[in-house]
# Entry
Amino acid sequence: MRRRRPFLAALIAAAMAGGAAGAQLAKADDAAAKPADAVAAEAPYLAENNTAMDRMMAAMEVKPSGDIDADFVAMMSPHHQGAIDMAIAYLRYGRNEQLRRLAQEIIVEQQQEIAAMQLALGKPAPASVPAPTQPSPSAPIVPAAAAASHHHDHMGAMSLSPSPQK
# Structure
């Protein structure tokens, strides 16, 4: 009987370890399911954000014109517009009030910087557009003049919504 006790103890220990491992696997499965659910819940935001990123990256691919100043503005304007588009997407889906205020500030500041770059080149400033506060989830982030974003003058992409100039 004495020889069987160590074997029995080892068998019980193995069974307990297997049970603990099974419990750990079950917890891992639950943990894996939660992020997948979270990702599914934020899929609309992620899709909108990815669209903004893709549009920004494509618009920044500018052929050098020989004018460093114009090339800089041609690349930086879509970069800033990308920040605006991502901030708008956040305002549609994000809930953190501090981040929502920051997103609104990003929109205003990036619009001002795009305007400053245009003015520095002697071009007219784009029409001012108020920062959105409660964009509707169904409203597209694609600016009305997005087709103009492939030209050196990327300012057509500035318009978030038409507003009369005063």
The chain has a mean pLDDT of 75. The chain has two domains: 1-39, 42-158.
